[in-house]
Records
---
Amino acid sequence: MQIDQDIVKTECYSKDGKIVDQWLHTQIYEGNPSTVEVDKSLGNGTNFRPDIVMIVLDSVSSTQARRSLPRTLSYLETQMGGMHFHHLNKVGENTSPNAYAMLLGWRIYSANRKAVNAKDLRPDHDKICSGWRDKDPVIFREYEKIGIPKFLLHWSCEASHDLPNPLYHTDQDYLNFFQKNKAILDNAFLFVMGDHGPRFGTPSKAELNKREINNPLLHISLPKFLRNHTQLIKNLQENSIRLLTQFDVHATLVDLLKVR
Ligand SMILES: [Zn+2]
């Protein structure tokens, strides 16, 4: 049976009508993608193609960022049209599987999908840490080929990898950075995100940590000239409350590659 939803709640009843079991099942429903036509006259002529800026905060979850970076996220949302994507789910335990998915669209582990009546998924690549990836289709190399003005990938570990609490101390610094560089970032697709949630320094049995470890931060700001695009904003708002993975982030980056 195929169910065209990401989240399915099941309940089993006894003969006298009492619930004897209930569970929430999750899957990624592969539906038809929506497409958006962008009026190029909205851009600034020859400099139509926006930059791509990705700031990855290692081990930072969605709700942790809400607690630790309130001024930064508030500024992105109120001054830069930022949108918070609440249900990004990691695809593997640590950095590697999530980075491969996000930057190459590659799966490095197999996946058993019998529970959702689908074929098992095989790894696209299983020799991680075995050489440079320069000749592989890493997403920023693909942007380089078409001459995107700038592709910035900043992957920060110091403030958040080993312990979750120091992230609080960076809120003002990140706010200052975005304020100082607003004019540049107004012509960019800006991704502020995690790769997975906090893995160290938290009570691993705490219910909140069990949820946060799977749910990395994803915050996207559009270039200024697209922030009033009705259909695009509607699509983003719908996706902001859907179950997503880093494969969706990669698919988005591939889509942006096609903007000409
Ligand atoms: Zn990581």
---
Amino acid sequence: MSADFRLIILDTAVFLQGASFSRKDIDVAVPEEVITEVKSRVPKLRLEQLIAQGSLQIRGATKTGIEEAKQFAEETGDLQNLSSADIGVIALACEQKKLGIEPIVYTGDYSIQNVLKSQGVKFKSIANDGIKQTIKWVFKCEACESKFKKQPEGNTCPDCGTVGMIKRIPSK
Ligand SMILES: [Zn+2]
């Protein structure tokens, strides 16, 4: 990667896919939401190890940054396909760019790529057929924990009726 970039931001798919990183010249960061979203044991251990080694920083976006990122995603029509971790990645990248720090996002998610593109943020696609086959997403109601294959209409949980608590998570 060219030295123009001063920060690499990783999305959840990078960890689920098992990509490994060792960069000494550039900071590597993930938003807090990605840590929360990675639930499988092995990727989680790898994530924790990288943090313990100091190879990976946890950086969050501001509330305003998150709201802006949602707006950007709404404009490109990708909001429905993005988890809160995905939004966190977009928000962090856009905010860093605003601060004059040129980030590059390593991502396996087409919707993330789409939104980043609309904001002129650089990304490196780690997407391949393998990812498309291995990552399956489900929608989970954070209020009652019910899971759904499709996003419930109006973001309302059909089981408990809670609105706005549906989150997209990897099914495994
Ligand atoms: Zn529910």
